[in-house]
């Protein structure tokens, strides 16, 4: 790369000149942009911001230019992120395509598959969802039974996927299917397929979540014909791709606070407003003060650990197994923060809707409920701990 300081200054100047003012504040849930054919932009500014960033390749800055990226080094991408944070710029685009499928395709896809799918992801034209879990195959993912028969020039898929986040908003789904039913090693008979959700025989049924959202679906496949060129990697060799993609998913989950809507105030501001200060200017409740201090120290430690991981990745020495720990620890800490906020707000955090509660208070309650899922989605904490134990050579069961 050229001079990092010059790159940073130029990036900052470009962002300053191009990022609409309305895109420089934390986004609410309704303002997040996932793209895709069904996308309804929350504002003209959000659309313009995405188009400008995509045209520069900055929605996926490290991807090669021919696939919609900007070909930046990870150091440059880090500087770009720093410049965006400085100005408070929103992510112009988020979603499964950017976070998970794109990186997996870059590693395992053919050139044709990359050219077909990556630019559409980078420009926010196609929205993807993930079809891994099934009834009876969540933590024990390799037990999946979604049936895929090889018919020569195409595959025939029958079965069900569950917990498909955003299945009702997505255009395409990446799925793990069983292509070998006789091999006793269950990981051996799995393949990785890309399926257009508009294909005949696909049905997506939304379910309502604890926080009231309906972005979570069951996805059914009934004799769905999938062209052979939609197979990523070799037949029966999908498990390696599945695991690699999970590394990207854990990375995203450990940084989830970067992407999901932020509360309008910091935890310290909530503490001041709802608990109050004593005559010494300290938080009036000793126990909550202790919990707040622990949370702030943990959050700072996590930030430093992630910075170290970023530097290790840049130097090519990152042990990818560390994503297990980041995912488990960051999501558990997010939930501890939610519990703390609830304790600080007291009865003000008991609202679901209505005039008796401010928007800020309702957001705290909804976030508490939403974040319950963080330690389940992307693999439960127990499973991350099991995998960590294995990585450390401790005795344990296969998971
Ligand atoms: C909000 C959310 C979004 C999701 N989005 C998607 C998605 O888009 N696509 C997708 O494919 N999946 C998705 N999932 C599914 C998610 O990956 C699974 O829920 C998760 O892997 C757990 O599987 P399960 O729900 O079947 O629970 P189970 O595997 O049945 O686990 C039940 C409990 O048993 C524990 N347990 C299981 N096995 C072990 C073990 N060996 N050792 C110790 N404890 C164990 C678990 O920790 C858990 O507490 C999502 C889940 C959530 C909550």
Please give a structural write-up.
This protein has helices at 4-18, 44-56, 74-87, 96-108, 111-122, 238-254, 267-274, 286-314, 322-345, 359-370, 381-391; strands at residues 128-131, 147-150, 154-165, 172-178, 190-196, 202-207, 216-227, 231-232. 42% of the residues lie in helices and 14% in strands. The protein is globular, with a radius of gyration of 22 Å. The longest helix is centred in the C-terminal third of the chain and has 29 residues, at 286-314. It has a 4-stranded mixed beta sheet with strand order 1-4-5-8. It has 11 helices and 8 strands. A hairpin with a 3-residue loop joins strand 2 and strand 3. By secondary structure, the protein is of the alpha+beta class. The structure holds flavin-adenine dinucleotide. The site of flavin-adenine dinucleotide has 19 residues, from strand 1, strand 3 and helix 11. Flavin-adenine dinucleotide binds at residues 129-133, 138-139, 163-165, 373, 376-377, 379-380, 382-383, 386, 399.
